[in-house]
Specification:
The complex is a heterodimer. By secondary structure, chain A is mainly alpha-helical. Chain A is 70% helix and 4% strand. In chain B, α1 packs parallel to α7. The chains are: A mainly alpha, B alpha/beta.
Amino acid sequence: MNGFLFDAIIYLAAGIICVPIMKKLGLSSVLGYLIAGVFIGPYVFGFIGQKGEDIMHFAEFGVVMMLFVIGLELDPKKFWRMRRYILGMGTFQLVGSVAVLFFAIIFLLGWQWNSALAVALALSLSSTAIVLQTLQEKNLGKTFAGKASFAVLLYQDIAVIPILAILPLLGTIEMDVVSEYSVIAELSGWVQALLVLGSIVGVSLSGRYVVIPLLRIVSRTHLRELFTAATLLVVFGVSYLMQLVGLSPALGAFMAGLVLANSEFRYELEGDIAPFKGLLLGLFFIGVGASINFPLILSQPIFIFVFVLVLMLFKFFILFALGLIYRKKIDQNFLFSLLLSQSGEFGFVILSFAATIRLITMDIAGAMMAVIALSMVFTPFLLLLNERWIAPNFGVKEDDEEKDYDAIEEDSEVVIAGFGHFGSTVGRMLKANGIAATVMDHNSERVKVLREMGFKVYYGDATRRDLLEAAGIRKARLFVIAIDDISISISLAETVMKYYPGVKVFVRAKTRTDAYEFIEHGIEHVYREYLYAAIEVSEDILSLLGFRKYTAYRQGIRFIQHDQKMTRDLALRRHDEKEYLAKRKEEVELQEEVLKGDLYSSLGAVDHSWDSEALKKKKE
Amino acid sequence: MNILIIFAHPLFEKSKVNKRMLHKLPQSYHLTVHDLYEEYPNFEIDISREKELLLAHDLIIWQHPMYWYSCPALLKQWIDLVLEHGWAYGVGGYALKGKMLLQIVSVGAARENYCQKGKDRYTIPELFEPFSQTAQVCGMSYLPPYVIHGTHVLAKEDIEEKTTNYAKFIRHALNEEIRWDKLSSYHYTSDWFTELLKKNEE
């Protein structure tokens, strides 16, 4: 009954049953996972034994990956623009929460100061996983509450690094049991701190000089699954290294993400890891639910519940004060303060680390972990409460004053997929006219060069919707497809037309057959690449043979118009005819049809405006 | 005197009169024929080049068939683009000051049509007021137009005579100075020149 498959079935089934039920009830998916975890956990149905700890170890990878992605998304430019929020709000929240919790614990519970500090540090951090998931689900990312939450969480995520470095310096308390084996637990405080800093430096250096070159090599193989494999390898590798020195794998992944954020692979990495991240995060929440130690809670229910309540109240009021300082609308402030009022997964990390280095007892660690888990469970309910009863009383939902903040996303109006000879010419022409197009390309070497030249370039497969989103397709007005492969171009065009109907699709066709295909797929703006060059050559030839340049020029324009119309007609007629025959039509036959069209069009004999001969004839 | 003929004809290959006119033009270092529709088939005029040409010549001629009482579109485009503020007119715009401007036009209908009681109700100098005013603003002396009437009906011999006279006129302008005060009282410059030719014959 303990087979891997059985476990997998239990987790997946629990998630698939609970999450839709919660969604149906208007609750967040996080709650669904948590409740699923509680049900399959050891204290309800007991499907998963060992108190859920085993899966927690595995599911922590969800958090690891999430932090990797957060690191990836942390564009230094964006960070710099948000510095007021990140540094100001982050510092206030963290210092305020730690101070309040620290003194509360010392005065109310009378713990030792170093234990109290470790616990205060652990509890002051909020749950990035829950909050980001909620923001994404409710599409609140662009509101003040969303941005401020992100800023505070970011600060906390970064703060974990120094916190973990400081903990060993706080000394140890007297304790008999050594809980877990770790390489650094035996070392003295200073050595441990140095080791922590050393590994951080190590991760950033190896990221730049090992991982990025490695990804370049992998990307050149043009095998998508290999790139996914490389991405996972990076995350697992960093996590393993971090565990080896007794540090949080999540931190390592965050660092790795940061290092890779500036590489051209940012969006490709993000997209590759997204499905794993989502699944494992779900698993992580299930793990949290399953690991809630009900006997422990039941043994001291009043202490635990009051602790959770007081903890969340403290955190709420500190955040609310913060919102007041930044003079935000009251509904946004409620949302912001409630969103971040729980403690999070980093609390687990810090508590287990503190226990490892004997800073706190296992009892305290267990109780505090239960507190954290409960606070996480309460969050979705609190948000629901806010949504139903608090927010409606404060009217204002959208805040216009934050519009300037939105200007961060300076997405361009034109996205060009494929930056070969054709796409790059389009891009250059637009750039020459002050329009910075966003470019998507599959060739990592080219991407590098273009970036250095100041183009906004995304590396990766343009048919992927996540990458399209990253490139700002939502805000674009035009999407130019300049990809050689006809089937990729068509599927790309269809994706864009289906999901982003407001975006005009311009497509380059290499051949007449390609043009027919595009037209049949309902694409309006089809450009046959050779048509224009061929016409220009013909114009120059005509001129050299004695034609007036202006006449040659007009004939060229009219020929292009005639050809475009005929291409459209033939494409649609081709569709009407027996499909079998139509599809097998060779280029030569097409050519024949085209030439016939030219004969009947009687080109060049339609102009009488300046022709006095014609006038004379009419007079006669 | 350096002469610049700015020539505008969108369908020159089918023209009768203008083709003969250009054909008969003398070769001279002091005469430049500038074929607008051949130079700028896509209407994208090289302004600085046009300015240089203007500066290098004293008598500027706009030669074109008359379309709808006006000039072909490209010549209008040329006027709009080349005669820039601060260069041709306005503050600091003296580049063309003192030059002469002459319009040489071929007109389909007979001369009699162009009067108050005629079909076309206005005389050609009246109709060309916008051009003459443009020259005025640019500080140029606008000569009475040189007009060849009746191109729709002219017999071959008439065309030959008129175009030969045109070539003679250009030659005359190249050799002897054309003076605005001598011409300004004439309806057409072509009238003045026919008179001059007659006088010379006598």
